[in-house]
Amino acid sequence: MLRRDKQPTATIKQIEINVTTGKALSEAIEIWTGWAKYDTEGPHIYKVDGYYYLLAAEGGTFEHHMLTIARSTNIWGPYESADTNPIMTADGKDEYIENIGHGDLFQDRDGRWWAAVLGVRKQEDGYLGLGRESFLSPVDWPRGGWPVVRQPRMSFSREASLSMVSRPPLTAPPFVEDLYIRDYDPSKYRHTNDGKTITLTPSRTDFTSPVDTCTFLGRRQRSLDSTASTRITAIEGPLGKNVQAGLALYKDSIRSAYIAFDFATNSLVYSIHNSASGLSGRISRKIFGKVEEVELRI
């Protein structure tokens, strides 16, 4: 756990503004110094049963991450820390979902409380292959008391409400899962009506640019063990030109890897790039004869 006498200090300050113009109407006033007093940030205030509850994230965003809470009858304080702090953390616990914090509390249509929090799924080798993800966790909030946030789990049970059972299942709009790198240019992406075929217009930028946009259609990886595949049709346009198309594992402009078909050399290319560690490499294999279609899988 944190040594609170050995950590830097951050505090929560509050200022009144004109919600229309954004103009400040008061000085910034410190209203809570936090419980852990380490990277105290991300405040949310809820008015429940006559109290103003101040929820904050503390401990940084790694193993000491946590949710803490305080309350006051006046929005300007003074705020009293909960005796149950931290109300959620994986620090010092053997949990599959770790580094949990940065949460928000909300109610459903039946008045039940929930927490949406950030966390990571830690692999056996210690790596965090999926990065930070959002998790939903039930909250028990007794009247006049403190909220109790259950430890996030990959699955949990909670009695279904009548409003949830009677409502039709939610349907997502088409292509809602599609992800792009920075500025999205719709002219570079054309979907067929069934969504199974996509025509892409190449860009002059690749993954390594920290500011520009390359032609990239992504899906977030949801499982630690997963596969992805695509089938590339070699149309006449890019053949012989400096164009590559394929599958990529993209973290950011610093870290990426891809396997692609190189239209200029009629080759399959595998490339890995990590400018942070200096690890970079490229392997290509020439394909002899005309290629009409290539199927790639990661």
UniProtKB/TrEMBL annotation:
Q: Name one GO biological process term.
A: carbohydrate metabolic process
GO molecular function terms here? Answer: hydrolase activity, hydrolyzing O-glycosyl compounds
Any Pfam family the entry gives: Glyco_hydro_43
Which InterPro entries does this one have?
Answer: Glyco_hydro_43 (IPR006710), Glyco_hydro_beta-prop_sf (IPR023296), Glycosyl_Hydrlase_43 (IPR051795)
Q: Does the keyword Hydrolase apply?
A: yes
Keywords, comma-separated and alphabetical: Glycosidase, Hydrolase
| PANTHER family reported for this sequence | BETA-XYLOSIDASE, BETA-XYLOSIDASE-RELATED
User: Which family does the record claim for this protein?
Assistant: Belongs to the glycosyl hydrolase 43 family.
Put simply, this protein is called Beta-xylosidase C-terminal Concanavalin A-like domain-containing protein
Identify the taxonomic lineage of the organism of origin: Eukaryota, Fungi, Dikarya, Ascomycota, Pezizomycotina
